[in-house]
C-alpha cells in the first residue's frame, strides 16, 4: 500500500456534504460510518504523509494512519466542539503513534522528507543530488525526536507555528525555541558553515 485509504467495508460517503468537522465528529459518535469515511477523506492523506516522513516506511505509515482513523471512531464521543481544530488533534495522535515507533528503533532516517532526484538530470548531477539528500537524511536522523518533528512539521508539512506547537504539546514560544535549536543542530550536523538548509516565510 502507498497511502491508499483503507476503509474497506465502510459505506460510501457520497462526496463531502460540507458539514464541518465538529458536526462530523458528532455523527461519528452516534455510530455513523459514512461520517467516519468523510473525516477520512478530508484528513487521511495528511496524516499518512506526516507518518511517512517521520517513519520513512509506507507500510508503517499505512498502519499509523489506519490507527488514527480507529482512534477517531473510538474517541469521537469525547470530542468537544470548538476546543481545537480536528486536524490538530489528528496530527497530534499521528505524531504520538510515530514517536512510539521511533523510540523502538535505533535509527529513523527521514528519507521521505527528501526530494527525489529528477531522472532527466545528467548522471553526475543526479549522483550529487542524491548524495546531498543522504547527507540531509542522515543529519535529520541524528536529531532528537522532537527536534526532528519540529522541522518536519514546519518545513515539510508547512504547518503554521501555532498548530505545530499544539501538535507537540508546547506553547508557541517554546516551539519557536525548539525549532531554532533544531535548525542549529541540523546545520552543525551538515557542517555547511553559513549556508542554511531551510528557509520559509512565517518564522519568528
Q: Main sheet?
A: none
Overall number of domains: 2
Beta-strand percentage?
under 5%
Structural class of the secondary elements? Answer: mainly alpha
Under CATH at level 1, the class of the largest domain stands as Mainly Alpha
| Overall geometry | globular
Indicate the percent of residues in helices.
Answer: 55-70%
- Give the second-level CATH assignment, the architecture of the largest domain: Orthogonal Bundle
* Total helical segments: 8
Distance between the termini: 38 Å
What's the total count of β strands?
A: 0
Quick check: average pLDDT? Answer: 78
CATH domain fold name of the largest domain: Rna Polymerase Sigma Factor, Chain: A
- What is the CATH homology-level superfamily of the largest domain? RNA polymerase sigma factor, region 2, helix turn helix motif
Notes on the structure:
This protein has helices spanning 21-29, 33-55, 58-75, 86-102, 123-141, 145-156, 161-167, 172-190. The protein is globular and about 55 Å long. The protein is mainly α. The chain folds into two domains: 9-108, RNA polymerase sigma factor, region 2, helix turn helix motif (Rna Polymerase Sigma Factor, Chain: A), CATH 1.10.1740.10; 127-193, Arc Repressor Mutant, subunit A, CATH 1.10.10.10. It is built from eight helices and no strands. Helix 7 (161-167) packs across helix 8. GO terms for molecular function: DNA binding; sigma factor activity. Belongs to the sigma-70 factor family. ECF subfamily. It comes from Nitrospirillum amazonense. InterPro entries: RNA_pol_sigma-70-like, RNA_pol_sigma-70_dom, RNA_pol_sigma70_ECF_CS, RNA_pol_sigma70_r2, RNA_pol_sigma70_r4_t2, RNA_pol_sigma_r2, RNA_pol_sigma_r3/r4-like, WH-like_DNA-bd_sf.
Amino acid at each position: 500500500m502507498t497511502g491508499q485509504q483503507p476503509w474497506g467495508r465502510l459505506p460510501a460517503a457520497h462526496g463531502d456534504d460540507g458539514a464541518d468537522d465538529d458536526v462530523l465528529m458528532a455523527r461519528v459518535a452516534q455510530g455513523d460510518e459514512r461520517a467516519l469515511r468523510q473525516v477520512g477523506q478530508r484528513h487521511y492523506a495528511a496524516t499518512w504523509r506526516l507518518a511517512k516522513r517521520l517513519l520513512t516506511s509506507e507500510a508503517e505509515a499505512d498502519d499509523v494512519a489506519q490507527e488514527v482513523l480507529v482512534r477517531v471512531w473510538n474517541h469521537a464521543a469525547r470530542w468537544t466542539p470548538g476546543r481545537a481544530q480536528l486536524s490538530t488533534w489528528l496530527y497530534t495522535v499521528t505524531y504520538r503513534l510515530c514517536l512510539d515507533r521511533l523510540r523502538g528503533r535505533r535509527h529513523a532516517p527521514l528519507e521521505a522528507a527528501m526530494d527525489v532526484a529528477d531522472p532527466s538530470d545528467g548522471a553526475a548531477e543526479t549522483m550529487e543530488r542524491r548524495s546531498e539528500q543522504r547527507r540531509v537524511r542522515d543529519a535529520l536522523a541524528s536529531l532528537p525526536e522532537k527536534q526532528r518533528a519540529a522541522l518536519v512539521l514546519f518545513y515539510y508539512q508547512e504547518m503554521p507555528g501555532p498548530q505545530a506547537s499544539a501538535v507537540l504539546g508546547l506553547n508557541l514560544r517554546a516551539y519557536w525555541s525548539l525549532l531554532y535549536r533544531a535548525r542549529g543542530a541540523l546545520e552543525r550536523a551538515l557542517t555547511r558553515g553559513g549556508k542554511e538548509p531551510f528557509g520559509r516565510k512565517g518564522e519568528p
